[in-house]
Amino acid sequence: MTINQQFRVYSIYAKYVNIDPASLKTLMDASTNLFISDVRERDEYCSGHIPGAIRLSWNSGQFAAQYDSILPDSGNIVLACRTGNRSLEALNHLWNMQFWAGHDEMVLYNLTGGMQGTGGWSYAVDICRSVSPGINLLLMDP
Question: Looking at the whole model, is its pTM more than 0.85?
Fold first, then answer.
């Protein structure tokens, strides 16, 4: 059984798969073909995000305006936010825009509980540290 088969919902009505933080950690450890997008605002993202996550703000409209040029055409996509609500809205947007069409092997995931639910993770969380106005560094916070 592949890692996708472990987490995939086998229903033609499923828009996405909810994934908890522990299962996401397992998926991250097992999959090299995983794209993670954080749909929170900049200050939330810089307070801590999943390593490698690309920020596309939902509330500002950035996600809706740029998803088709930034999200990959293959592999699996995880959307994350603070609690799981904005990422769910973004997933519903992808569904309504028929992003899934022609991507039969792609699995879309919603991180349930969002970044609030990752509190006990043993994974490092990236944070942004401003070194001067307009310049940010990503540093690992173990």
Answer: no
